[in-house]
Design a protein that fits this description.
Radius of gyration of chain B: 19 Å
Shape of chain B: globular
Strand order of the largest sheet of chain B: 5-4-3-10-9
Oligomer: heterodimer
Shape of chain A: globular
Structural class of chain A: alpha/beta
Number of strands of chain A: 11
Distance between the termini of chain A: 51 Å
Strand content of chain A: 5-15%
Helix content of chain A: 25-40%
């Protein structure tokens, strides 16, 4: 294999912004010692109306696990205060699975022998028509990370098509420069989510062996560049289980916290993915972060940032998802297909990124929400 | 009480309870409106879809006045555009201006709110601006053509009650427009308190949306608001206003 490049060095086409947020996140994460926190710290955290950064650390620590019920109760109360019974619904649409990155845990990685495909504009429109028929009004566009195969213009066109059928268009594609985000925003998407995967740069280096994604600092500054480009909101996530999930969850929260302080208008969202099995790699053990730990992380996000949107992925099973939307999550996907071209009648063109656990269609998820006393919301934003 | 009407922009209402429609099941809106006796219900345009699975407009009884809001707007320009869109899709001329560019506390931007009020009032809207209670801003809003002023009691969704009580009182004393307490009211007793102070009406959403029994809580609010209004009209006794005391402890000697 070729020699691995320095993962801390920006590539020539990558914008470097003047910001200290990245360093502050890493510094805060390095200083966090989850095992240092005691039962008393957790009880103190639970006492506080507004959770401090120290409280957030305590709530993420192993000492908090025995208090999961109390934590969940508080999280539920906060969620209801800020969101009432509303739960937003959306679906992801994968338009291309070409990828230039070599991330050893991901089904799309460039060395994984899977069926590659990219939808043309006509196919994108067909997929969107099929999704819109289900009643959804929010779509999340995804690609594998290949700027060659799915360039900014291609993604921009996809956004324009999406705006014909949906009120809200989000993006989960490769990180871009701020001027590219500005272009994409004008095309109709205004919410950008990028998973940092892990905030531990040493670990990051061992997992992302090649491609643009290998550059750790460029990825960490994505949310800020997106906001500089005029995006309305940004999403954050660590892929829990890649490294110490408590420290990664803490870094994710602090990252969002610092961004929100610097850009008070920015809408903030968390995703909470755990590792899932992928095609051609059965060594990944999704059990490293068990359900109680996942619940703990989600509730800690909620209590630390009560106003943030929290998305629950189809990586989790129906039971977990139906319950977590009653506690802390505020956004749920439905009718999910993580392959290429699976929504309309045509044959699927490309393979899936990972295995999903909750394959329910839009109506089934909608009905389950109603049955549990929640109010499904198809759109919560208006472009003007 | 019978002839006690709430007048907003020339429109007359008997009920002083403005009900929010967000954050709870659409099936409950009708029951909530009925139990609340509400004649005005707010509507977030960003939620009201055309066609599709659940169109909020279909659930709102016809005799109720819609008060669309501009939530989602981050500046005056966006608020103006949302208001115009609301009118276009048939929501009428009432508009509650919400301009929020803080995603954490959802506190309104008073400056942008004044700008939006001025533009929309000129276009014939009945403008009801949501604001942070500041006397100078309230005067500017009045001068810009607002039909009422909607100061916040506490941050949206906080259910903390009327934290800004003293400042709202100043608005009630100084501004000759209906002062409608909006946001932060968590329980009927707090709604009652606002009305006792002389607020013209109360707007509540989260407190009702998150209640165990939504229609019943709507009714509880209705009663509390009526009780508070009645108390205000009756004139509160000095015991409540000033605290209990002998009738003339210091100057009584003059009578002897």
């Amino acid at each position: 294999m070729e020699k691995r490049t320095n993962h801390m060095e920006y590539m020539p086409d990558m914008e470097q912004i003047d910001s200290d947020i990245k360093d502050r996140v890493i510094e805060a994460m390095n200083a966090y010692e989850p095992d240092k926190y005691t039962e008393n710290d957790v009880l103190q955290a639970l006492e506080h109306d507004t959770k401090t950064i120290e409280d957030f650390k305590a709530l993420l620590s192993p000492a908090a696990l025995p208090f999961l019920e109390e934590i969940a109760q508080q999280a539920k109360a906060e969620t209801r205060k800020h969101f009432g019974n509303s739960i937003n619904m959306f679906t992801p649409l994968y338009i291309s699975n070409y990828c230039e990155n070599y991330c050893i845990y991901c089904g799309f990685n460039c060395h994984n022998k899977i069926h590659r495909a990219k939808l043309n504009y006509e196919e994108i429109e067909k997929e969107m028509q099929a999704i819109a028929k289900t009643g959804l009004q929010e779509v999340l566009l995804l690609t594998g990370e290949s700027k060659k195969m799915s360039d900014v213009e291609y993604i921009g066109e996809a956004c324009k098509i999406a705006r014909k059928y949906f009120k809200v268009v989000g993006l989960e594609v490769y990180p871009m420069n701020s001027d590219e985000y500005s272009y994409i925003q004008k095309c109709g998407a205004d919410y950008v989510t990028v998973f940092q995967e892990t905030y531990n740069s040493d670990k990051y280096e061992t997992l992302h062996l090649a491609g643009h994604k290998r550059v750790f600092p460029y990825r960490l500054e994505t949310q800020e560049r997106a906001l500089m480009g005029g995006m309305r909101g940004v999403g954050f996530a660590a892929l829990l289980g890649l490294s110490d999930f408590r420290k990664d969850a803490f870094a994710t929260g602090i990252h969002a916290y610092l961004i929100q302080r610097k850009y008070p208008h920015a809408e903030i969202a968390f995703s909470c993915p755990r590792l899932r099995p992928i095609i051609n790699n059965d060594k990944i053990n999704p059990k490293d972060v068990h359900e109680p730990q996942l619940l703990q992380v989600i509730c800690a996000y909620r209590l630390f940032m009560p106003f943030a949107s929290i998305t629950i992925s189809t990586r989790e099973c129906q039971r977990f998802r139906d319950n977590i939307v009653q506690i802390a999550a505020t956004k749920i996907s439905a009718g999910v297909d993580v392959g290429i071209g699976g929504h309309s009648d045509g044959e699927k063109k490309g393979d899936e990124q990972f295995e999903i656990s909750d394959g329910r269609n839009v109506k089934e998820v909608y009905d389950a929400l109603c049955k549990n006393g929640m109010q499904p919301v198809m759109s919560d934003y208006i472009y003007v | 009480m019978e002839n006690d009407k709430l007048i907003i922009g020339g429109h007359e209402f008997s009920s002083r309870f403005i009900l929010g429609s967000g954050k709870y099941s659409l099936d409950l809106i009708k029951a909530a409106v009925e139990n609340a006796g509400a004649e005005i219900i707010t509507l977030a345009l960003r939620r009201a879809a055309t066609g599709n699975v659940a169109n909020i407009l279909d659930y709102i009884p016809e005799n109720v006045t819609l008060l669309p809001n501009t939530s989602g707007a981050r500046n005056a320009d966006e608020a103006v555009r949302i208001a115009r869109l609301a009118r276009e899709v048939g929501c009428g001329d009432f508009i509650k201006i919400e301009v929020i560019k803080d995603s954490k506390y959802l506190l309104p931007d008073n400056y942008e709110t004044i700008k939006a009020t001025e533009i929309l009032a000129k276009e014939g809207f009945v403008v009801m601006p949501y604001m942070y209670p500041d006397l100078n801003v309230a005067r500017s809003l009045r001068d810009a053509g607002a039909a009422s002023i909607m100061p916040l009691g506490a941050p949206i969704g906080s259910n903390k009650g009327i934290c800004t009580k003293e400042f709202i009182k100043i608005l009630i004393d100084e501004i000759d427009l209906p002062i409608i307490v909006d946001a932060g009211i968590g329980r009927p007793s707090q709604a009652c308190e606002a009305m006792e102070m002389g607020a013209a009406a109360v707007m509540a959403n989260t407190a009702i949306a998150t209640a165990g029994d939504i229609p019943q809580m709507a009714e509880a609010f209705k009663k509390a608001i009526e009780a508070g209004r009645q108390a205000y009209l009756s004139g509160l006794g000095r015991v409540i206003e000033k605290g209990a005391s002998a009738s003339s402890p210091l100057t009584g000697f003059l009578e002897n």
